[in-house]
Amino acid sequence: FLESMGHMLFIDQPLNVGFSYSGNRTGTQQVSSSNEGALHLVNFLYNFYREWPKLAASPLYITGESFAGHYIPAFAREILLNETFKAATKVNLKGVAIGDGWVDPINQFNYYDSLLYSAGIISNKFREVSTWMQTRAC
C-alpha cells in the first residue's frame, strides 16, 4: 500500500556515523563540517538519480531530527545552489523538515529550563537553580 503513495529512502548521515561506513577502511573519510557532509549527500543523490533517473522528478523532502538541524539546511542549500547538480538530475526539492533540531546549541541550551518549566516537567525552583547555573557556566 505505502509503495503506491511514494518513495522513502533512509540515509545515515554523515559518513561513518551510526550504521553508515566507508568502503575505504584504511583511510576512513571523516566529515569535518556540515558543508562537507552536504557535498557527500549531493554526490550520493547524484549517483542515486543516475541509477534511477525516473525518481528525480518525484518531489524530494529532506527530513531528520536532532543533529540533522545542522546537516539538513546545508544539504538543501547545496542542492539549491549547485547548478551542475540541478541540471544533471532535474532534482525536485520541495521542502525540508527538522524535528527537535540541534540548530544553535549555545542559544538552545540556555532555554531548555524555560521550555521544561512551561511544559510542566520541572518546578519553578529547579528552573531558577538551572538558570543560575547557566549564568555561572557562561
TrEMBL record:
Record keywords, A-Z: Carboxypeptidase, Glycoprotein, Hydrolase, Protease, Signal
InterPro entries named in the record: AB_hydrolase_fold, Peptidase_S10
SUPFAM superfamilies assigned: alpha/beta-Hydrolases
Stored Pfam families: Peptidase_S10
Top-level taxon of origin: Eukaryota
Record keyword Acetylation present: no
MF terms (GO), sorted A to Z: serine-type carboxypeptidase activity
GO BP field: proteolysis
Record keyword Hydrolase present: yes
UniProt xrefs under Gene3D superfamilies: alpha/beta hydrolase (3.40.50.1820)
Family the UniProt entry places it in: Belongs to the peptidase S10 family.
Protein name, per record: Carboxypeptidase
